[in-house]
Amino acid sequence: MENKIVVITGANGGLGTVFVKKILELKPSKIYCTARDSKSLETLKAMSSLIEVIEMDITSKDSINAAVAQIEKLDVLINNAGVNSNSKLFDDSFMDIEVNLKGTMNLTQALFEKLKNSKGSVVNITSILALINLPILANYCISKSALHSFTQALRAEFGLFGGEVYEVLPGPIETRMTEGSPMPKTSPEDIVNAVLAAIKNKEFEIYPDGFSQMVKQRLELEPEKLIEDFSMSLQA
Known about the structure:
- There is one protein chain.
- Helices cover 43% and strands 13% of the residues.
- By secondary structure, the protein is α/β, with parallel strands linked by helices.
- A 7-stranded parallel β-sheet has the order 3-2-1-4-5-6-7, sandwiched between helices.
- The protein is globular, with a radius of gyration of 17 Å.
């Protein structure tokens, strides 16, 4: 990240804030921090003159275009913004798809030429639930699964010009999004440290915590049993 220009979406969230702090330590040339409400970024802006705050709603193409117009050059895009509607399959909620998939796709497309010019990198924060559906959070899982597929396609596109695409597939993280969840959670600091270390080592699929590593292993060794276990969430 040294001397790089970085965009971090959802920078006001628990994970986003830690990304900002940790990347500042790596001496970037600039960090653009985005969120739907720029006032929520005032504390981050006060941290360093290298931080520039941009208000952006990734579900709005007009908002994306206005934000992108403020970014002249770009080396690294961290697609961290996301939501979890905590909805089951037929709860008539499409918020997860609108934000996690469509919003991320639209922003990445809008910044594509800037990233292409710099042979830049994209870091997509998906979820270990991109690989297996937890039915109690069905719509969140569906959106992350689609984002996982988008990331694979994006990696191929970036490979044509020497760019890099990383995917982070964490388990539950100690943030507002997982409040009340009984599952074991990893601190945002541990997640970000693992992600930055993996990027340094050119590891393009990143499983940054014990839970995500456990699920990945079980998907390889006993996928049917894991699917059965996860389906029990509907009976809890």
